[in-house]
Amino acid sequence: MPTSVTISFQFDLEKTREALAYLASNSTGAFDKYQACKLLFLADKYHLVRYGRTITGDAYFAMPHGPAPTRTLNLLTILIEEPEGEPALASYFTVDRSYVNPRLRATHAEYDNLSKSDIEALDATLRRFDGKTFPELRALTHEMVAYRKAWDNRGRKKSVKMAFEDFFEEDSDAIAGVLDEAIEDSQLRKAFPGRE
């Protein structure tokens, strides 16, 4: 039975750009849109189960290759595929299209919108997962409860929204009480929109 989606966040373009730039600047691997999405998912999950919010506010969908931050994936796809690039990301990245999967290089190195806990989550994600190949990251994220629950209950859909509540399941790093606080905060944001 799918989890009802109670927790939601507001997408934060500034933090997303800076988080991607931070990952691109500090990653030792081939930083393409697939690596970017996987590492961003892992950093958002890390932050959520410890601090009750994600870094980016993006919604995650279970897709054939695993969890994907939908707004971020769309922005990255446009940046890579459009000749003029995506204006929201073009000033933060250059795209090296000489690879089968074009690689992103950060041109922006200021992280004014990222909190200390955001940087902690990004650093922890890089320490643990940087250098892993896309197939390794795909296999790892396919085994996560949140992905499996959404994917197994998608019916005939090609993608389905993942429930942030499920990010806490089987996560030994989840801090007690954070899930309840995240649900309460989300309900308050819905009851009082615009008061972030």
Give a written overview of the molecule.
With 196 residues, this protein is mostly helical. It has one domain. Helices cover 48% and strands 9% of the residues. The chain is built from 8 helices and 5 strands, in the order ααββααββαααβα. The chain has helices at residues 13-26, 33-51, 70-81, 87-90, 116-129, 134-142, 145-152, 178-191; strands at 60-63, 66-69, 93-96, 103-106, 160-161. The strands form 2 sheets. The protein has a 3-stranded antiparallel β-sheet. Strand 1 and strand 2 form a beta hairpin. The two termini are 32 Å apart.
Nutshell version of this structure?
The chain contains eight helices and five strands; from the N terminus they run H-H-E-E-H-H-E-E-H-H-H-E-H. With 196 residues, the chain is mainly alpha-helical.
Rg from alpha-carbon coordinates: 16 Å
- State the total count of DSSP E strands: 5
Structural class, from secondary structure content? mainly alpha
Strand order within the widest beta sheet:
2-1-5
The overall number of domains is 1
- Could you tell me how far the N terminus lies from the C terminus, measured between alpha carbons in angstroms? 32 Å
- Mean pLDDT over the residues: 91
Q: What fraction of the residues are assigned to beta strands by DSSP?
A: 5-15%
SSE run: HHEEHHEEHHHEH
Q: Return residue spans where pLDDT drops below 50 for at least 5 consecutive residues.
A: none
Give the CA-based shape: globular
Biggest sheet record: 3 strands, antiparallel
Per DSSP, the total helix count is 8
The proportion of residues forming helix, as a percent range, comes to 40-55%
